[in-house]
């Protein structure tokens, strides 16, 4: 089994799927000759040509709109939004068109598009290159949202997203692109959309996370097990919408304690729905208050590295929160 980083896993999966199915195409800003701003699509144009790897104008609403039309016409388009921060002009197309197409057509049309979205901070990208946008779409029925954490998750979930008959927002954390490495499965490896993954089994505290924050939680959990014998059950959501409520509830029933950690803003984030789910379905199993760690409710990620670090959730924050919950 090969070892790849997250970025290499995205690129390799795109190559595999485009070779496997001639209906798969890529469109977005600079995805062709320049291979994308992160080089995720590097080499695709040379192999598949301009009909299947399409450099578009700087107009996100048209990128997603064209992808919707291509999907209705029988193709399997993958639309890249260069940075999550640029997705807002396409919100109308995503929420009012793609997410509602099956319903408004009485099931005559699906919308099998994948929207790849590099998101998150940690690269000192400042105001317009660091946003987390998952909460913006999280309350939209008709969409699926996935956020892979490992290279294996990337392959399995991206293949599932391409095969899905409805629109999928595929979140790729920019800070993980070259820093996170792992096994890249060969062959027809696929992960069904909708299931969380228990990355680490434990009995003392449940930690629910996703994306880059999951890796900080993972490091904190391993350290606490070695240093203090605290055994954390670590749940990687992987799919944000639909949310795997059953896995979360069963874990909390076992541990009695819940910490939720994510990089998006605290108010209205995915963590709020996880907390509400546990409060509704597993309240009597809790031995401590639910804790949340997230970015503060400020308008944007600061550019200065020290301020960015102060804003983003950290391994130390997560470690201390787990320790406090374990004391109850």
What topology does this entry show?
Elements: E1 2-5, H1 6-20, E2 24-28, H2 44-48, E3 53-55, H3 60-72, E4 76-80, H4 91-98, H5 101-104, E5 114-119, H6 134-137, E6 144-146, H7 151-163, E7 168-173, E8 181-184, E9 197-200, E10 205-209, H8 211-228, E11 232-236, E12 239-241, H9 245-255, E13 258-265, H10 270-281, E14 291-295, H11 305-311, H12 315-326
Parallel strand pairs: 2-3, 2-4, 4-5, 5-7, 6-7, 10-11, 10-13, 13-14
Antiparallel strand pairs: 1-8, 6-12, 9-11
Helix pairs in contact: 1-7, 3-4, 8-12, 9-10
Supply the CATH architecture of the largest domain: 3-Layer(aba) Sandwich
- The best one-word shape is globular
Please state the CA-atom Rg, rounded to the nearest Å. 20 Å
The helix content, as a percent range, equals 25-40%
Task: State the main characteristics.
328 residues, alpha/beta, Rossmann fold, 5-stranded mixed sheet
């Amino acid at each position: 089994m090969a070892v790849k980083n997250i970025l290499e896993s995205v690129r390799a999966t795109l190559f595999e799927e485009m070779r496997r199915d001639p209906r798969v195409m890529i469109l977005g800003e600079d995805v062709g000759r320049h291979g994308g701003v992160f080089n995720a699509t590097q080499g695709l144009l040379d192999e598949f040509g301009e009909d299947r790897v399409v450099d578009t104008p700087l107009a996100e609403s048209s990128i997603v709109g064209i992808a919707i039309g291509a999907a209705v016409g029988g193709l399997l388009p993958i639309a890249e939004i260069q940075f999550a921060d640029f997705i807002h002009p396409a919100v109308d197309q995503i929420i009012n068109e793609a997410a509602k197409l099956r319903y408004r057509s009485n099931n005559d049309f699906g919308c099998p598009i994948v929207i790849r979205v590099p998101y998150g901070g940690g690269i000192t990208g400042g105001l317009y290159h660091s946003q987390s946008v998952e909460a913006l779409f999280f309350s939209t029925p008709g969409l699926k949202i996935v956020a892979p954490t490992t290279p294996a998750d990337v392959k399995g979930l991206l293949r599932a997203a391409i095969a899905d008959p409805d629109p999928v927002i595929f979140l790729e954390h920019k800070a993980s692109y070259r820093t996170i490495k792992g096994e890249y499965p060969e062959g027809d490896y696929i992960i069904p959309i909708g299931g969380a993954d228990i990355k680490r089994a434990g009995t003392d505290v449940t930690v629910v996370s996703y994306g880059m924050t999951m890796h900080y939680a993972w490091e904190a959990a391993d350290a606490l097990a070695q240093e203090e014998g605290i055994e954390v059950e670590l749940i990687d959501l992987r799919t944000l919408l639909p949310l795997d409520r059953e896995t979360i509830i069963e874990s909390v029933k076992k541990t009695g304690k819940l910490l939720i950690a994510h990089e998006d803003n605290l108010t209205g984030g995915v963590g709020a729905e996880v907390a509400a789910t546990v409060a509704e379905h597993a309240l009597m199993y809790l031995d401590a208050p639910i804790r949340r760690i997230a970015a503060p409710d400020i308008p944007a990620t600061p550019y200065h590295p020290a301020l960015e670090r102060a804003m983003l959730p950290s391994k130390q924050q997560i470690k201390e929160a787990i320790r406090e919950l374990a004391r109850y």
